[in-house]
Amino acid sequence: KNSEVSGVMAKADIEPKSMHRAKIWSDDVENLYRFQQAGYRDEVEYKQVKQVDVVECWPETGFIKKLQRRDNTFYYYNKQRECEDKDVHKVKVYVY
Fold first, then answer.
1. Number of folded domains in the chain?
2. 11 inside domain
3. Which candidate, 76, 85, 70, 83, places its Cα nearest to that of 57?
């Protein structure tokens, strides 16, 4: 059983091929902003590090509701947009 799990994790260790910065706000940029605030590249890295299958989202908006940082403290997010226009250019969009 153990080797099976480590084999799956090795495959899941995906590195991005490239990165660019977001130019305009979108739902995806909003969620990336939330992952990056919590110290992760994106959902792929979060799931690798925290070994979770699903990320808690607000059903109304689809935005991320709660993330666990690497030091195990939690970030809680609002239903509404949190990434302001002035912060959009800070968001890194990774391509796999």
1. 1
2. no
3. 76
Residue 13 lies in a domain: no
CA distances from 43 to 3, 4, 61, 76 (A): 25, 23, 17, 16
Residue 22 · residue 93 · CB < 8 Å: yes
Average confidence (pLDDT) over 37-49: 95
Could you read off the pLDDT of 72-82 as tens digits, one per residue?
999 999 999 99
Helix or strand or coil: residue 36? Answer: helix
Quick one: tokens of 6?
């480590």
What pLDDT was estimated at residue 2?
38
* 7: confidence class by pLDDT, cuts 50, 70, 90: very low
Q: Looking at residues 28-45, what average pLDDT do you find?
A: 97
Q: 73 lies in which domain range?
A: 18-95
**Closest among 23, 38, 19 to 88, alpha carbons compared:** 23
> At residue 43, what are phi and psi to the nearest 5 degrees?
-60, -35
